[in-house]
Amino acid sequence: MAGFSVVILAAGEGKRFHSRIPKVLHPICGKPMVSYIVDAARELKPKRVVMVVQRDRAPDIDGVEFVVQESPRGTGDALLAAEPLLDEEEDVLVLPGDVPLITSSTLLSLLKLHGGSFCTILTTLLEDPTSYGRIVKSGEEVVKIVEERDATQKEREIREVNTSIYMFKTSAVFESLKDLSPENAQEEYYLTDVVGIVREKGYRIGTFLAEDSEEVIGVNDRSALSYVGEILQKRIIRRHQLLGVTISPPVVVDYDVKIGRDTTVHPFTALYGKTVIGEGCIIGPNAVIVDSYIPSGTVVKPFSIFNRQ
């Protein structure tokens, strides 16, 4: 696969969170939301990972280059901010900072399909596409992406939606971004408008359909944050179970927790932070362990609290 870079758009204000904390820094299972996207991107082995952020709002993540979007003027303007860090001869994978369920396997499939296209859009089908941008096609050809607030009634009936994940030819996308206009309901520079611009220039645009629509859920409010957290928690528990740990939900297990085989975690137990539990332990029920080391063979009695601090 040819060289490519990743740009993560993480400068959105997240107004529906009603929070002083940037949306993408809200934690899910013990990690900032955006760190899950960084992890998925790194598994693809890109040349570099660039994150567009608000001033003084960069997360503490190693191996990521940060660039500031000075004012929130839309996704198109955010991508333009990253231009000085990118090689125009390679491709760029653009990811939103609020899709923590995305997997590297889906992104790899997108990269492989991209080939010689100018742009390949990751799409999915939703029973209820409300709030998502619609993929408008003529036959199999993408005509444009239209945002919900700007869509006609007929366009709102389309079930194939934009996930805001794209693979672009770098030189061509920045040429097209300079032609954007903020003539829309939000008066912002939409990255989605690039599709219509490049179609007029005769560039090839492709789509790749993500079969699992859960992977591309955008976290736009705290209700979605909770829903996505439940899915991630199930993934984490299953990962431990497949490695030989007996877990009886409901339990809370943060992403970075390590548990040795033949350990049993009883219900209503919470394991937080960078807790490490050895092999053959019995934990709980109703135990709380925070950033602690539990040696192999330990019995943590019900209602125990361990906190390294």
From TrEMBL:
Q: Which reaction does it catalyse?
A: alpha-D-glucosamine 1-phosphate + acetyl-CoA = N-acetyl-alpha-D-glucosamine 1-phosphate + CoA + H(+); N-acetyl-alpha-D-glucosamine 1-phosphate + UTP + H(+) = UDP-N-acetyl-alpha-D-glucosamine + diphosphate
User: What keywords does the record list, in alphabetical order?
Assistant: Acyltransferase, Cell shape, Cell wall biogenesis/degradation, Cytoplasm, Magnesium, Metal-binding, Multifunctional enzyme, Nucleotidyltransferase, Peptidoglycan synthesis, Transferase
Query: What InterPro entries does the annotation carry?
Result: GlmU-like (IPR050065), Hexapep (IPR001451), MobA-like_NTP_Trfase (IPR025877), Nucleotide-diphossugar_trans (IPR029044), Trimer_LpxA-like_sf (IPR011004)
From which domain of life does this come? Bacteria
User: What GO biological process term is on the record, naming one?
Assistant: regulation of cell shape
- Report the family membership: In the C-terminal section; belongs to the transferase hexapeptide repeat family.
Function, as annotated: Catalyzes the last two sequential reactions in the de novo biosynthetic pathway for UDP-N-acetylglucosamine (UDP-GlcNAc). The C-terminal domain catalyzes the transfer of acetyl group from acetyl coenzyme A to glucosamine-1-phosphate (GlcN-1-P) to produce N-acetylglucosamine-1-phosphate (GlcNAc-1-P), which is converted into UDP-GlcNAc by the transfer of uridine 5-monophosphate (from uridine 5-triphosphate), a reaction catalyzed by the N-terminal domain.
Q: Which organism is it from?
A: candidate division WOR-3 bacterium JGI_Cruoil_03_44_89
Instruction: Give me the Gene Ontology terms describing cellular component.
Output: cytoplasm
Residue intervals of the MobA-like NTP transferase domain:
6-115
Name this protein carries in UniProt = MobA-like NTP transferase domain-containing protein
Record localization: Cytoplasm
Which cofactors does it use? Mg(2+)
Pfam families attached here? Hexapep (PF00132), NTP_transf_3 (PF12804)
Q: Recall the GO molecular function terms of this protein's record.
A: glucosamine-1-phosphate N-acetyltransferase activity; metal ion binding; UDP-N-acetylglucosamine diphosphorylase activity
Ranked from the top, the taxonomy reads: Bacteria, Bacteria division WOR-3
